[in-house]
Structures are given as C-alpha cells and as structure tokens.
Specification:
The complex is a heterodimer of chains A (164) and B (855). With 164 residues, chain A is α+β, with helices and mostly antiparallel strands. Chain A is built from seven helices and four strands; from the N terminus they run ααααβααβββα. Chain A has two domains: 60 residues; 84 residues, Glutaredoxin. Helices cover 47% and strands 11% of the residues of chain A. Chain A has a four-stranded mixed β-sheet, with helices on one face. In chain B, the strands form nine sheets. In chain B, strands 17-16-27-26-25-18-19 form a seven-stranded mixed β-sheet, with helices on one face. Chain B has a six-stranded mixed β-sheet with strand order 31-33-32-35-30-34. A five-stranded mixed β-sheet of chain B has the order 4-3-7-5-6, sandwiched between helices. In chain B, β28 and β29 form a beta hairpin. In chain B, α7 crosses α25, α8 runs parallel beside α25 and α13 packs parallel to α19. The chains are: A alpha+beta (164), B alpha/beta (855).
C-alpha cells in the first residue's frame, strides 16, 4: 500500500458522504495526490479497492483532470496560467522569466527536484492576473520582483526542511 | 399494451400513448418512445453513429438530428421523447445541413485513411460521409494525431488485447465500445482517458483487453478504431460472401454469419447475426473465433487403420470394409449387445439420428449415449434429473423474470449468452438475481447475492430453502405436506450449517421464490457433473412443488452443448423418455431388447469384456471423461474401436479405425438449442480433403452391414421432424421425494476441492485448434484465491504441483478474486496436461492438494 492508514480513513470518510461510493472518486484522488504528490496506476488500484469500484473508473477521472500530475514532480509545482486575462498582463513573459530563472523548460523539473514548471489553463482568478498556483496556494498580481521573492522564500524554506 | 401476469390471472394494462406527426405522417407510439425508435417503427431511417439498440443512450455523436416545429434548434432524435402534437421532420434542408456539419466535426481528427482501413466497405462513417457529400472538416489547424512517433500517423495501431487492435486516430468518441463493455459485458478493461481534443479510448492501466466478449467491440465500433487481428488486411469485405450459421459450441445456439470466399475456400471471420430471441447480437469470443477450428491445418485428412499395431493411412473403402468386417465378427461371435456408440451432442440432428438408428435398428443394441464427461449416470430414465432437463425454457424468459436463481453454474464459462441475458435483466429491469455456487464465480457481478456453499451439498442447500419457507410460514402450510419427513436434516439451521452458508441468505432466496411473479431458476454443469445429480434434482422437484412454482417459474438444468437438446429428443440416450421411445419403435418396427447402457456403464463393461466394439463420433473421452485411468483401461480393452473426429486426439490414438469427420462448417445441418428451437447451419466450406459428415459415415457403415439406413436424405429429415415433434416433457413428480444428507468423507491429506470446466475462452477439446482462442489462453492453469496463495507462499505464475490420490499435474498458478479459499479451478479443455487424471469416477467431491514446485 502506498496510501497511509490516515489517507485510507479519509477516503472512507469521504465515501460515506455519498449514496454511491463512485461519487467519492474526486475526493479520493485529491487525498491520494496530497499524500503522494502525484498520481499513478498503483494508486488508482488502491483507491478502487477502498471504494470497491473498477480501477478503470478512477483512472478515467484522474486522466480527465489536468491539475493532478501523473508523474513525480518537484517539491513545488508551479502552475502558471496563460489564459486571456493573464496573457494580456504578461503571462508568457512571466513564464519565460521563470524558465530562465530556474533554467528549465516548461514541463521540466529543476535538477535539485525543487521546482516543476507547467503552463495551465484558467485557474479562475482573472481579477488578480497574472497569477500562478504553487502546490495548493495562489500567488496573484505577479511581477518579476514578486516572482523572485517567492522563489527565494520557497528555496529557503526547502533548505530549512519546512513545508508549505 | 403491456401484459402483466399475476399468479393466476392475466391483467392487461393499457399503456398511455402519444400521437405526433413524423414527416407528414401521423404516428402513435407508447409514451416514452424516442423519436428515433418511433421513426424506425414506421420504416423511416435516421442515421446514427453513437446510438446502439442494445445500449443506453449517449447522445454524443449528434448524427440523428431532426427538426421539430417550434423548437429553437435541431434536436437529437435518439434522446428526445415523442410528445403529443409534435411535428417532426427527419429529412428537411435544415436537418441535412445540420447532419453535414456534424460529419465535419466528426472528421475533425479522423484520418480518412479508408484505403488502408479494414472497416472500409462496412463503415458507418464512410457511408454517412458519402451520403452527405462531406469529405473533410473546415478546421484549418492540423488534425490531432495519436501515435508512437510523429511519422506514425496512419498506422498508429496499438495491439490492446490478444485479438483487438486499437487505432485512436479513427475513433470518433461514440463510446459504444465503452458502453458495451461496461453495461452489456460488465467488463472494466477499457476506458476513456484525457479530455477534449485529446480524448482517447484505451485499455485500463496495466490491463489487456481480453474479456470473454472482447470480439464484440469490433462489431459495435462504427468506424475502424477497433478491429481484430484475425480479420485485418486479409480480405476486403466486399469480396466475401456470407453464410448463416449458428454457434457450434454452446447450447443457446447464438446466430452467426460466416464471411467466406468461395475461390479461396476459406472462412475469414464470424460475426453475429442478431437474433433478439437468442443472442441479442452479442457473441462470446469462443463462438466468434471458434470457426478457425474448421480450417486448422491439423485436420484429419484421410482415414487411418491400424496395421500391426500402427495406424497407417487408408482409403475410405478399406476403412469401411474393415469396420463392416469387425462389427459383423463381433456380432456373430458374441451377440449384438457387445457393440456400443458415443456420438457427441455437438453433432447435427442428421448425424445423431443416423447413429441412433444404426445402433438401435441395424446393430440392435441400446448401447448409445451422447454424454462424454458425466460420470456415474443413472441407467434408467425418467428420474428427477430427467424431469428437470425436459422442462421448457426460454432465453427471452430470463428477461421477463423478476427473480432469477442459478445453482451450480459457472455461468460465463458454461453459458456466456445466458450470463449476458441476466446482466441485461439486471441493467434494464427490476430483477433480483441469486447465484448459488460452490465457489465464487463472475455471477457475483450480477447477483444481488452469490451464495457460496460447501462443495457437494447442493441438495441440502435446496432442502434448507424449503425448510426455511415452512419454518417462517412463507408458503401456504397445506403445501408443506410430508416434506419434513422426506428430507434430512429436518431444520433449516442444521442444513445451512452443513452447507456452511448464512441462514439469512437462504431466507432471502426463500422469500424471493415465495413472492416472485415470474421466476427463472436453473442449474448448470456443477450439478450435471455431480454424481449426486439425481438427489439434487429431487430436492429441486420438492422445491418446485412446495413453493407452487408451476405456471410462474421456468426451472431447468441447462444442457451443455450445441445440440444436447436434439440428442435427448432424438433418443440418443440409452433409455429415451417413453414418448420418444414409442415413436421410434413405431418408426423402426420394434425396439432392441438389450439392457440400456450409458457411456459410463459401457466403459465399465468394456473392462469386463462385455462390450467389444465401440464407435465414437466427435468425442474425446480419454481427455474429458472424469477418470482418465478408467476411460483408458476401458477403451484399451476393446476388440474394436472406431473414432470419427476432426483431429487426431488421445482417443483416436487407441482406435483401430480413425475416420476424418467433416466439421459443422462443411455441411448444412440442423441443431436444437436449449429452448428446443430448431436452427439451421449452412455449408460455408468445401472439404478439400476426404472428410465426411457424421450422417454419411453412419449411412456408409449401415451399407457395409447390408442394411441401408434411409431411402434418401429427405425421408431421413422427415422422420427427424416427426421425432422432434414428440412432446418429451416429463411431468413433475406428484409427491415429495426423499432427499437425505449423506456425509462425504474428507481425506485430510487433500484439503482443497477441485473443480474443472472450460476456460472462459474455450469450450471442449476442439477450440485449442483456434489460433485466436489460444492467443487468449493456450495453457492450463490452476486458479486459486489470493488468501490460499498467500498461505502457501505462491505468486501468480509460479509452477505448482496439483495432486490427488490418483494423479498429479504441474501447472502455473493464476491468482483470482473469483474463487474462494479452499477451492481450486483447473480448465480441462487443454489436451496437454491430462487434467482428468486427477479425478476419480466415484468421488462426490474431487479433492486435491497443491504445492509449489521448487526447481
């Protein structure tokens, strides 16, 4: 089992909220993702076992939602929105700035395994564009200086062993 | 008008209807009918891609657009119910424009690689693009491509299962395959992944598309996205002819079409020939790919006769002369009763009837049977088991039931078609399904409850249902009569304990039987194979009587082979039912006086030298009789053995004369399915070597014995029709029958119960000759539960020794959730491993032990 007993309990609790166990697929994959940092077929199998549903249904749902990484990613998953509002306010420039700064291409992970950079569709925060999401938090009204500050903070945090 | 049958009265309820205008015609249909179905009912064709008559509605292709007056937009007719006063146009300019646009969307990513696509010529998308004059989409960005490499655009074929090839670029996301797989077959090896432009059908992570119904997916696919290896790039569909035929393996007789090419003298594939009364258009893979057996290069091509202990090739003339000579010698030397016959119930009516007449009329003995793999059969007929087997049964009746109960049947393996029927009943109706089995089977997917009982306690289990009904007052107490005295143990609790089942589960079944309006209750092979079959059948007769099931229940022990019913009705049993016997003795002017002997009894008598000559047609007792040693000793002890078969087998190896038998595809014949329905096959292949149908062999032997069987084929067929018309239904017993518990001895050295049967992709000893089917499964294995595997420290695929007191075999392990702890399953349809050497003829329950082979 990859899932911890605590995650299993949380998935079971989530399933209890619905008349059908199948309805708990999304909460379940969220719980698994938060524990592991990404999803994979082994996890789909474990979740299916807990919910007593076919594994393919878990895999289907997981594949539909792009916000769940399916491969291991860095400690910090930087998701930069590039849709209309963010694009108008310089999202692409921000992305290339991050690429240069972290010395990776979009879709790659830094060699110290700290940061993964991805381009995502609208995150529903157009009023605060340009913006990005790192793990479970939004960083809004971004500028290059702001990005510098955030990366610096996260690097320091990782070195001191803390978590977000 | 829907008919509701109460226990005694028929209430006719009027269903509300709606009337609307369809292309200027007034149409009245039951309320709730979709526009699409209403149109079909009056012969108006609306094009569809995602809609499928046997599946739930997806509404994903938009092809079935119709225009409805006063509606703001076109509507999809597959998902729109007809309403009173609606005015609908199915072929207006707007509709045609809408559909043309839909095709453009559909072609957005489609490669239009028709020249290299196997679906070409029978592709719905191709036909619709043709009909609407649309050949491409108007999008100016490139088509999204799935493929391993960038250049891999046309042939991005992914082999997703032993037979199925997936081409995602051709897929139009109609989800028919997904729906068929999940709804109709209950399989979860295929899924829809990603989204939007990137949506793809694919196998579930870590799985193969290898379920027992996988071949159907190539038929439901309206484009060339799912094709099968067996058919691909071999021939264009328009160069083939079709021949209608039926499934030669299972007893429901699914209707099939064989695609042939006469010049090549080849069958290229089999597809379904939808018959809603039988198969609903679904075929098991065994049925679909089984045709390859007929075309196997291993077929017997010439007669063989034994000379100086060795079989050598001979002409038919030599072989027949020898048969005639030896049969005459034996008859003269020892008397007529010394000759017997075994004719498999997969043979057609003409063959069965001809051999029946050959044995009874020409040879003059009652030593004839069609059962190869049943041990300890009763010598007499008309017992409880025969009563049950003779009861009427209808496949469609399964879908009209509100309660379905099965006993001792690994359904998917024995009756794949009926398994799908039950699934359908569960998906589309209010039905409670209860399965009772000695090990967990796939029936648990459809059953409200699969009750797993201790192997060999079937009759006590049925008793317990009766007892609980009496104890709880579920039935009219006057019906109970003296039942309690006839059965033991006499309380439900004691019986349930012996069967190791929960009394509450028994109670649920009893309640369902007491309340059911239309019940389907059938038993399967586990009952048929049991030496206790007569007691189990007696218990079932008691249950039928106690619950007053007459008129509201179809109860049966389902036959196993394509023509088992025909065999029974044509009198292939050593002691046919009285009505059949009377008819036959009238036709033949008498009846042999010899004692009727079953296969089983004949074999015992071969050892005693009381049967000296034996004729086998299309059967392989050495491989399939449940006691290999017994069968081998018996056949080796014969003076003369003739075997007619498609291939050389363990049994032909012992024969003095081996005759090449024509396969079902090589002549036209009739078969009787489990409902008693007579169905025809038509000749699809010419035998390009000298194999002959069974009926011809019978006639040739009769000629040798100087007693022609029939004037001509027509008189033979007329006689068959006459015999089939005899009502062979036996009356239910008019009293309760005695069913007492007999304790089984358990040898603690052999703690596991062994069940044998067919693999889910095979049926009998012939399907091993189909390449496609062996691609699914080629080797025997032993299926064990995860718990047992853990206890014995065995991993999936490990070699294990399976030992019984009389034999041992070494096979790989397959760990399965569909089996319980103390039971193991070994398929018997593979010739390599002599599985029946583990079995003793007289055991009620076969027991084994397994251990890991350390190399």
């Amino acid at each position: 089992m990859i899932l911890t007993p605590e995650s299993v309990t949380r998935i079971k609790d989530a399933a209890a909220l619905y008349p059908q166990a199948k309805s708990a697929i999304l909460p379940a994959i969220t719980i698994a993702y938060r524990q592991v940092g990404h999803l994979n077929p082994d996890l789909y199998g474990e979740i299916a076992g807990i919910l007593d549903i076919p594994a393919v249904e878990v895999a289907e749902a997981a594949s539909f939602y792009t916000m769940f990484p399916k491969e291991p990613v860095g400690k910090y998953l930087i998701q930069v929105c590039h849709n209309i509002s963010c694009a108008l306010l310089g999202a692409e420039g921000l992305l290339s700035y991050l690429q240069d700064k972290l010395d990776i291409e979009v879709g790659e992970t830094t060699s110290d395994n700290l940061f993964t950079l991805v381009r995502v569709e609208c995150l529903g925060s157009c009023a605060t564009a340009p913006m990005m999401q790192i793990n479970h938090d939004y960083y809004e009204n971004l500028s290059r200086a702001e990005v510098d500050r955030i990366i610096e903070k996260l690097t320091a945090e990782a070195q001191s062993g803390g978590t977000l | 008008m829907a008919e509701k049958t109460d226990k005694n009265t028929v209430v006719v309820e009027k269903t509300p209807t709606v009337t609307f205008t369809l292309d200027g015609r007034e149409v009245t249909v039951p309320k709730g009918t979709t526009i699409l179905l209403a149109a079909q009912s009056v012969g108006i064709d609306i094009p569809t891609l995602c809609w499928h008559p046997k599946l739930t509605i997806a509404g994903s292709c938009r092809m079935c657009y119709v225009e409805i007056e006063k509606w703001p937009k076109l509507a999809i007719s597959c998902a729109t119910e007809a309403m009173d006063g609606m005015v609908v146009y199915t072929d207006s300019d707007l509709v045609r424009k809408g559909r043309a646009a839909v095709i453009q969307f559909t072609l957005m990513n489609h490669p239009l690689d028709c020249p290299t696509c196997d679906k070409g010529g029978e592709c719905t998308l191709q036909d619709l693009a043709f009909a609407y004059g649309v050949d491409n989409s108007e999008f100016d960005f490139g088509k999204h491509r799935f493929g391993a490499t960038e250049n891999d655009t046309t042939f991005d074929d992914v082999v997703v299962g032993p037979e199925i090839v997936l081409n995602r670029n051709r897929c139009i996301r109609c989800y028919r395959c997904i729906r068929a797989n999940k709804e109709a077959f209950g399989e979860f090896d295929l899924g829809v992944f990603e989204r939007g432009n990137h949506t793809e059908i694919n196998v579930a992570p870590g799985r193969r598309l290898d379920n027992p119904f996988s071949g159907n997916l190539t038929e439901v696919c309206p484009v060339g996205a799912l094709t099968h290896l067996d058919w691909r790039y071999k021939i264009r569909v328009w160069l083939t002819d079709t021949t209608s035929s039926i499934c030669p393996f299972y007893s429901s007789g699914s209707n099939i079409l064989l695609y042939t090419n006469q010049q090549q003298n080849k069958i290229y594939r089999a597809t379904s020939r939808v018959n809603d009364d039988i198969d609903d258009g679904w075929l098991s893979d065994t049925t679909r790919f089984g045709y390859q057996v007929a075309m196997s290069p291993d077929r017997l091509k010439m007669p063989l006769i034994k000379k100086d202990g060795k079989q050598v090739e001979a002409t038919w003339e030599e072989a027949l002369k020898l048969i005639g000579k030896r049969l005459t010698e034996i008859t003269e030397k020892k008397g007529r009763v010394c000759i017997g016959g075994l004719v498999a119930s997969s043979q057609d009516n003409a063959t069965l009837f001809s051999f029946s007449k050959l044995l009874r009329k020409v040879v003059g003995s009652n030593n004839i049977d069609f059962r190869t793999d049943y041990r300890m059969l009763p010598q007499t007929s008309g017992g409880a088991y025969d009563v049950l087997c003779s009861q009427p049964f209808s496949i469609v009746g399964i879908n009209q039931s509100d309660v379905i109960v099965t006993l001792g049947s690994d359904l998917v393996k024995e009756h794949p078609n009926e398994y799908l029927r039950i699934r359908k009943a569960v998906n589309f109706g209010a039905v409670s399904v209860y399965a009772m089995n000695p090990y967990r089977t796939k029936s648990s997917d459809v059953a409200k409850k699969e009750l797993v009982y201790q192997a060999g306690t079937e009759e006590i289990l049925i008793n317990s249902i009766c007892l609980v009904a009496i104890e709880d007052g579920l039935i009219d107490s006057s019906l109970a009569g003296n039942l309690a005295e006839c059965i033991s143990p006499s309380t439900a609790a004691e019986s349930a304990e012996l069967c190791e089942v929960n009394l509450e589960d028994i109670r649920a079944i009893a309640r369902a039987l007491a309340d059911g309006r239309q019940i389907t209750f059938f038993a399967g092979e586990i009952v048929g194979r049991s030496i206790n079959r007569e007691a189990i059948a007696a218990a079932l007769c008691n249950l039928h009587r106690l619950f007053g099931l007459s008129g509201r229940c179809q109860m049966n022990i389902l036959p196993r082979h394509a023509n088992s019913c025909g065999a029974v009705q044509l009198g292939l049993l050593p002691a046919p039912v009285l009505a059949t016997k009377d008819m036959l003795s009238k036709l033949w002017g008498g009846w042999p006086e010899s004692e009727p002997q079953t296969t089983d009894r004949m074999m015992a008598n071969m050892k005693k030298d009381e049967i000296d000559g034996y004729m086998i047609v299309g059967a392989n007792p050495i491989m399939l009789y449940p006691d290999r040693e017994f069968a081998t000793d018996a056949l080796e002890g014969l003076d003369f053995l003739m075997v007619a078969d498609l291939f050389e087998t363990e049994t032909t190896a012992l024969a003095d004369v081996v005759l090449p038998l024509a396969s079902w595809a090589e002549y036209s014949g009739e078969y009787v399915n489990l409902e008693g329905r007579v169905q025809k096959t038509h000749q699809a292949l010419k035998t390009d070597y000298d194999a002959r149908p069974g009926y011809e062999i019978a006639a040739l032997i009769a000629q040798q014995l100087e007693q022609p069987l029939f004037e001509n084929d027509q008189t033979r067929d007329e006689t068959i029709t006459k015999v089939l018309a005899v009502d062979s239904t036996l009356p239910w017993p008019d009293e309760f029958l005695e069913v007492k518990h007999v304790a089984d001895e358990v040898d603690e050295e052999y703690p596991l119960v062994l069940f044998v049967g067919d693999d889910s992709h095979h049926s009998g000893y012939l399907t091993e000759k189909s390449n496609s089917l062996t691609n699914f499964q080629a080797e025997p294995y032993v299926e064990i539960s995860p718990t047992l595997a853990k206890r014995l420290g065995i991993d999936d695929g490990d070699s294990v020794r399976v030992e019984s007191p009389v034999g041992k075999i070494v096979v790989p392990v397959r760990i399965s959730h569909h089996i319980n702890n103390d039971v193991v399953f070994v398929p018997m349809n593979f010739s390599g491993k002599q599985v029946n050497s583990l079995i003793m003829r007289k055991s009620r329950v076969d027991r084994v032990r397994i251990s890991k082979v350390v190399d």
